[in-house]
Amino acid sequence: MRRLFGSVRARATLGATLVVAVALVAAGAAVLLSLRSNLIGEAGTQAERSARAVASELAAGTPYDKLSGLDGDDGPVQVLDEQKRLVAASEDLERISGTDSDRVKPRPAATPSGDGDGDGDGDGDDDSDDAGGEALEPGEISGESLFSNGSATIDGEAQDYRFAAVEVETHDRGHLKVYAGSPLAAEHGAVRTALTVMLIGFPLLLGVVAAVTWLVTRRALRPVEGIRREMAAITQSEDLARRVPEPDTHDEIARLASTTNETLAALETSVERQRRFVADASHELRSPIASLRTQLEVAAAHPELLDLDGAVEDTVRLQRLAADLLLLARLDAGERPNDAKVDLAGLAREAAEGRTGVTVDAEPVEVAGSRGQLGRVLANLLDNAQRHARSAVTVNVRSEGDRAVVGVADDGDGVPDGDRERIFERFVRLDAARSRDDGGAGLGLAIARDVAVRHGGTLTAGRGPAGGALFELRLPLV
User: What is the 8-class DSSP label of residue 112?
Assistant: First the structure.
């Protein structure tokens, strides 16, 4: 059961069915109440019509035994005097409830006793108050009617009725109240029929809703299942070149598939980059390690032939390469620089100190970041410029708007336009001037670009004033 309702399709079907069920129950209740109210209203109107017909005959002086409404064909009728005594009733009336009197056989009308209230029973009651206390003239019928529900048995047949009460003032018989009833059988039958239809139709309609929702949801989620299967296959095969199918629907699922493929492409690129990085790093490390091993083996066999300077140089190269690889690994892992204030002018002078042919023109500017990493960027840019310069390297530090700009220019041959982005890739060398023998492993500019990006800046290559290369580092000011 948990597995069944753990699926989106089952939850969607259940949710839609519950919503429709609640709506149907509410609508059905409203329909039944409205139907019952309308039918009761119609029965009340019919009862009022019958009561007023009898009241009109009483106002005209028709004797009780001559009243046309007492035949019982249109429903039970009672006529009560001021003492609420039954003075006339329908023929064959056997039982009644819901009126002011439950009697079914008339009593002779009493003569007024003059007790001061006109009702002859000495209790001070005036039944005209039941109709709102309306004062009537002889021969006048009250404009108001009272309604009630009750039951009656006529000629052995019991039914529920809607009763209407109408008061009339007669010339010779005083104040009378006429009760007439209209059967509620039609109301009960219609409500029962409507309820039966709902009890049969609602479950069928809910079944249709559930089936349609299940089918529509299954069709809508079919691409999702295809994406899931393909992702499972990719995970099992570890083939990141595969892509999930993209439905031609231009909806959320299509966008999900597109985003998934973009993620797979980025992951494939990242994994391929890591593989190349490991391969290139292994290749770069092999050269100094092999050279150092050879020198050590020669020294072990022939101590007099030990090239100590070469061994130290290879060790330094190996140390620098290991440091570069470690820094790149930290940058790839998302290491964030600290927010310390760094004076780029002072940092540029420190990086240029002791270097031949390097001049610095700097104004004080401050940025936020890692002093060590930014110093590494300047050192790498200066190493690269000196490697390519003929005689001079110029460092310029200034501010432009909300950015600090550090320019490192040389008077060498410059960087071809087509290679100005490629040189920032790892282990890339454009010519023999950047060979292993000169100490370059093709990581300096890649490290500089990554550090610049981590600090919210940019590093670009262009043409300098002297015709050589110009590298500009732009960082946000503090």
Answer: P
Judge contact between 391 and 357, C-beta under 8 A: yes
- Rounded Cα distance between 406 and 365, Å, is 10
Rounded Cα distance, 58 and 277, in Å: 114
Render pLDDT for 118-141 as a digit per residue (tens, 0 to 9). 443 434 333 333 444 467 888 889
Closest CA to 168 of 177, 159, 160: 177
Distance (Å) of CA 10 to CA 7, 226, 251: 5, 18, 21
Regarding pTM above 0.70, the answer is no
Contact 357, 379 (CB under 8 A): no
Segments making up each domain of the chain, as ranges: 1-232, 252-332, 341-476
**Helices of type H across 302-410:** 308-332, 344-352, 371-388
Over the stretch 152-192, which tens digit does the pLDDT of each residue have? 998 888 999 999 999 999 988 889 999 999 999 888 889 89
Q: Reduced to 3 DSSP states, what percent helix, strand and coil does the chain have, rounded to the nearest 5?
A: 50, 20, 30
- Candidates 321, 316, 313, 312; CA nearest to 286 is 321
Topology of the domain comprising 252-332: Helix Hairpins (1.10.287)
Judge whether 382 and 394 are in contact, CB under 8 Å.
Answer: no
Q: In the CATH hierarchy, which top-level class contains the domain 341-476?
A: alpha beta
| 181-224 pLDDT per residue, tens | 999 988 888 989 999 999 999 999 999 999 999 898 888 888 88
* Crossing angle for the helix pair 8-59 and 185-237, to the nearest 10 degrees: 170
Question: Which conformational region is residue 318 in: left (phi greater than 0), alpha (psi within -120 to 50 degrees), or beta?
Answer: alpha
3-state DSSP assignment of residue 140: coil
Give backbone dihedrals phi and psi of 306, rounded to 5 degrees, phi first.
-65, 120
Among candidate residues 326, 437, 442, the one with its CA nearest the CA of residue 384: 442
Nearest in space to 335 (alpha carbons), one of 444, 450, 425: 450
